[in-house]
Write a structure and sequence with these properties.
Number of helices: 9
Structural class: alpha/beta
Strand content: 25-35%
Number of strands: 26
CATH architecture of the largest domain: 3-Layer(bba) Sandwich
Largest sheet: 5 strands, parallel
CATH class of the largest domain: Alpha Beta
């Protein structure tokens, strides 16, 4: 019997494997990963520096331990180069792996900005444990950091590094941080809180060039300002990894297109996590991955189960000002109703008429309302 093959050892891949083993202890299982296969919590990457954690300290288990726990074969440092859908085969550099069913948990790649200058190749991003290790090495004995992007990840890194004694500057084309997730008053409150601990803001502009300057780097902004720094970190977003699926002839749009059973356009091939587009949604957060993994495990174990997403607020790890966001759907009608106080900001997206809550953003003391407001939200995907 050919095994179930999972490509990817991030949270999505490992969670599917764990949930499947709860339901079926005997089905053959193989995981293929292009990296070391260590299991870790990706959200910890953006606050590990302030905790003094090296990369190996963020890893909870190595691949050998995970293989033993899951009773699975785990091929590390192995890359799937192609899929032969009709033959039910994954093609690696040194062998061919047959599968009964294939799960693509490929993740996403950091978006690379089209920067000019002889220092552009030195710009870092942190999307996995190996990236984090490179970032920590780059920051050794350094004190200055420029972060490109003031979204969720950029703000978390800024808070963590500034609190750890770094000199952090944030650059973003929007007028306030979290511009895609929260209304302006919440963004401004977070900006002011981070400024209060020393973060420097350069909003309404973008980086155009990164040049070598002495022993460090110089970031040239579109408005003409120049920022001297030791390290540049890009945190401008992620792009689902779809190349493998595209070359295999699977339907892709923003991500690998799957139905509510997480099936791709090819028989016996499934996808989930940051690489997948479920009912038009690409949700690169922990809770959607957990719900999808549990549903897919049931399907793989013989009980077809559609994924359903409840309301899933996202916690922004910025101790300078705690923030929780549950953005409304992209096509939601209505608008924000914002109330501010000395201790926080409470923003609710209300449908026309003001009776139905469709989203919220809370900052500071208002985050205590998270649970109560979440109960009022419609599910993200019924």
């Amino acid at each position: 019997m050919d095994p179930i093959v999972i490509v990817g050892s991030g949270l999505a891949g490992y969670t599917v494997a764990r949930e499947l083993r709860k339901l079926d202890s005997s089905v053959p299982l193989v995981m293929i990963t292009a990296d070391h296969g260590r299991f870790y919590s990706k959200p910890n990457l953006s606050n590990g520096y302030g905790l003094g954690k090296q990369a190996h300290e963020l890893a909870m288990n190595d691949a050998r331990t995970m293989a033993r726990q899951l009773d699975a074969g785990i091929d590390t440092d192995a890359r799937v180069e192609a899929l032969e859908i009709q033959r039910h085969c994954a093609i690696l550099a040194d062998r061919t792996q047959s599968y009964s069913r294939l799960v693509l948990a490929l993740g996403a790649d950091p978006i690379r900005l089209p920067l000019e200058g002889d220092g552009a190749e030195a710009v870092l991003s942190v999307n996995d444990l190996q990236d984090y290790e490179r970032f920590r090495d780059a920051m050794a004995d350094k004190r200055r950091l420029v972060i490109l992007g003031a979204g969720l990840i950029g703000c978390e890194f800024a808070n963590d590094l500034q609190a750890a004694g770094m000199q952090v500057a944030l650059v973003d084309p929007a007028d306030q941080p979290l511009a895609r997730l929260a209304p302006a008053p919440v963004g401004r409150a977070l900006r002011d809180a981070l400024a209060g601990i020393g973060v420097q803001w350069h909003m309404g502009t973008v980086a155009q060039r990164v040049e070598r300057h002495g022993e460090g780097l110089r970031v040239i902004l579109a408005d003409g300002r120049a920022l001297d720094t030791d390290v540049v970190l890009s945190a401008v977003g992620l792009r689902p990894r779809v190349a493998l699926a595209q070359t295999a002839g699977l339907v892709t749009e923003r991500g690998i297109v799957v139905d509510r059973l997480l099936r791709t356009s090819a028989a016996d091939v499934y996808a989930l996590g940051d690489c997948a587009e479920v009912a038009g949604l690409v949700l690169p957060f922990v809770m959607p991955i957990m719900h999808a993994a549990r549903a897919l495990a049931k399907t793989l174990a013989g009980t077809e189960t559609e994924v359903r997403y409840p309301a899933m607020p996202v916690v922004v790890k910025t101790p300078a000002l705690p923030v929780v966001v549950a953005p409304p759907a992209a096509d939601a009608s209505g608008g924000w109703q914002v109330e501010s106080s000395d201790g926080g900001v409470r923003a609710r997206w209300l449908a026309p008429g003001g009776e139905r809550l469709l989203g919220f953003a809370l900052a500071g003391t208002a985050v205590t309302e998270k649970q109560a407001l979440t109960k009022l939200l419609p599910p993200t995907l019924k």
